[in-house]
Amino acid sequence: MGGFAVRDGALHCEAVPLALIAHAAATPAYVYSAGLIRDRFARLDAALAAAPHRIHYSLKANGSRGILELLRAAGCAVDVVSGGELYKALRAGFTPDEILFGGVGKTEGELREAIAAGVKLINVESEAELRLVSRLAADLGAVANVGLRVNPEVDVKSGHQYIATGERGHKFGIPIGDAASAGRLAIALPNVSLQALDMHVGSQLSSFDAFREGTARLVELSMELRAAGADIRYLDAGGGLPVPYDAEEEPDLAAYGAIVTAAANTLGVELLVEPGRFFVAASGVLLTRVLYCKESGAKAYVICDAGMTELLRPSHYDAFHRIEAVSPRAGAGAVTVDVVGPVCESGDFLALDRELPGVEPGDLLAVHTAGAYGYVMSSQYNARPRVAEVLVDGTRWAVVTARETYEDLVRHEIPVPQWREA
Questions:
Q1: Do the beta carbons of residue 79 and residue 102 sit within 8 Å?
Q2: Predicted TM-score (pTM) of this structure
């Protein structure tokens, strides 16, 4: 199934030594296992076999074209949340009927693009957005297929407050108490066709209770809207499957599948799900090289060539990522260190007070479970070019996103502005 393992004393991605990739493609770099992604798709697909279903990968977790084409070849569809993601999905070969378009703040231009493309569903998040979609569809001589993203207002047990999205008062979705009214509006509007109810209760859920309670509320609402004339064809359970970053257990896919397929079968509709992190998080490592080791006061620091510009999650979410040496030094004793980057910010770190085997400048480190919300959240802060992305498939590997150059940092600057009068 691929993945990362130590062979002959050195860490490999599938059959390729990470040291070989670092030498040829330089560091920092993201490295992804194709086999692990395929395996996760196949296991989730099997867990949903009890109902007609379609898996729509949430592109926001990792939009690398190499990964998108890999998932498309496996039979996956896609979920996007911006016009740019819609463009990337179409460019990677997904057909419009394989694309869901979500997001709480879609612009008029983005909605027009989605309607013109003929995406499978636009998941709307307010009555104002419904009216706008209907007006834009009328302008284009079209009928837009829509779903209502409903906030089911359930108790969400998530790893961080920033990734819980289905509780009362969150900005996402139509509050459950207002959803029936929004549904009746969708039925009445001339240029939209209400075909789905959708939810996304959060990410890294420690319990499936939110799925059970949320889908039950969607089923009840679907029946009410059907009675009012809606042609409900889909139940969209969203994403949220957790992945282990430290010592957590893998999610029970059979239990999850039983909950969401039962809800879809109650309605006799196709089930849609939108996993992102589940497919790609464990498939990726951030490969970084140690630049310096130093002490300051009572602190020991390992300073690397990757930091918050490459992986924002530790400083933004206080996220834990396991770190190991690619080629551990024999007999190196464990030391407690802060693993930090080169960015001029005190918040630039990959790990704090972490016990690691002793390393020296020039050693390679692998930051694990970095395939989701890693490269896509990276930046050019401190004028640091974004890094390369590498895909490994068995014994072969390829750069699928080139490392940026200094020229890329200034590509869109206009050296001689064309001034205009007010």
A1: yes
A2: 0.95
Catalytic residue among 76, 293, 304, 344: 344
- For residue 124, CA distances in Å to 98, 111, 134, 221 come to 17, 10, 11, 16
Q: Per CATH, which fold does 4-31+283-409 belong to?
A: Lyase, Ornithine Decarboxylase; Chain A, domain 1 (2.40.37)
Helix and strand element counts for the chain (H, E): 12, 21
214 Cα distance to chain centroid: 21
CATH 3.20.20.10 corresponds to the domain 48-280: yes
In the three-class reduction of DSSP (H, G, I as helix; E, B as strand; rest coil), residue 80 is classed as strand
What tokens does 190 get?
């001339």
> How does pLDDT run across 214-258, given as a tens digit for each residue?
999 999 999 999 999 999 999 999 998 999 999 888 999 999 999
Domain boundaries defined on the chain: 4-31+283-409, 48-280
Token readout for 189 is 């509007």
Which element (helix H / strand E) includes 338? strand 334-340
Q: Which tens digit of pLDDT belongs to each residue from 184-209?
A: 999 999 999 999 999 998 878 778 98
In this structure, of 23-27, 119-123, 156-160, the range with the lowest mean pLDDT score is: 156-160
User: Is 344 assigned a catalytic role?
Assistant: yes
Kindly give the pairing relationship between strand 10-13 and strand 4-7: antiparallel
The residues near 410 (Cβ < 8 Å, ≥ 6 apart) are: none
